[in-house]
Amino acid sequence: MRILFLGTSSGAGKTTLDALYCRYLGRKGIKAAPFKASNLSLNSYVTKSGGEIGMGQAFQAWACGIEPAVDMNPVLLKPSGNGAIQLVLRGEPFMDITKDEPMDRDMVMEKVTESYDRLTEEYEAVVCEGSGSPAELNLQDRDLANLGMLKERSVPAILVGDIERGGVFAALYGTWLLIPEEQRPLMKGFIINRFRGDGSILKDGIETIEKLTGMKCLGVMPYLNLKFPEEDSMSDKEGKLEGSDTREAFMNNLDELLDEAIRDGLDLDGIDRIASE
Questions:
Q1: Is the sign of the CA dihedral 151, 117, 274, 58 positive or negative?
Q2: Parallel, antiparallel, or unpaired: how do β-strands 75-81 and 84-89 relate?
Q3: What is the mean pLDDT of the chain?
Q4: N-to-C CA span, the chain
Q5: What is the mean pLDDT of residues 2-9?
Q6: Do 23 and 118 touch, CB atoms closer than 8 A?
Q7: Is domain 2-33+110-275 annotated with CATH 1.10.10.410?
Q8: What is the pTM (predicted TM-score) of this model?
Q9: For residue 67, how many C-alpha atoms fall within 13 Å in the half-sphere facing its CB?
Q10: Cα separation of 45 and 247, whole Å?
């Protein structure tokens, strides 16, 4: 099983929905691991081996019931000021990326796919997360986590849109439309995130997006006042976080969100079918 959660933007909720599906698989006794090819964040976590990865992938690993490892986030990009970005490759500082010294994208993508392949050999399911938006036209030729994974490993994808920001149907359709035609068949479904109220009022819009794109709506996620790890620029101090430590508090919140999503009809069987293709 393998699946890729993409977002219509940064902060759409793909980190949390990735962790939610990891938690669901763990409840079913399926041995799963998270994977994010490339993460742009200063919010990092040091694994037991001493390697550095994004905090989001540590969170997702805990959701799977396993220890975080560097293969789960082989590329961590840490802005360091003055236009430079530190490239942490498989947990270790590798180079400073600057305008004059760019990253060797092909070499790095090879390292990314090696990490991904190791996880697919070790685990029954690999739950992947994209980075930012896959529709950034100026970045598509350098992309690792979105189009990179669609192109290199043909991972079936689910698109997450945040209705809290407004314009969710335009965001879903626009993102799908800007995906290269040869990769669009991999866009299997979509989820509308952070909705407040009766989801039935979205019926006409959902049916239109399904007809325009061929993607199936897999659910409308409720807005709950819960805190989860986010990338730096999208962090929010609000939200409940209760437990004996941060890890337990995040898992308590994730369990609460999963239970609520199941009650609201999130199509987890449908996600399973997509992941098994």
A1: negative
A2: antiparallel
A3: 93
A4: 8
A5: 97
A6: no
A7: no
A8: 0.93
A9: 8
A10: 12
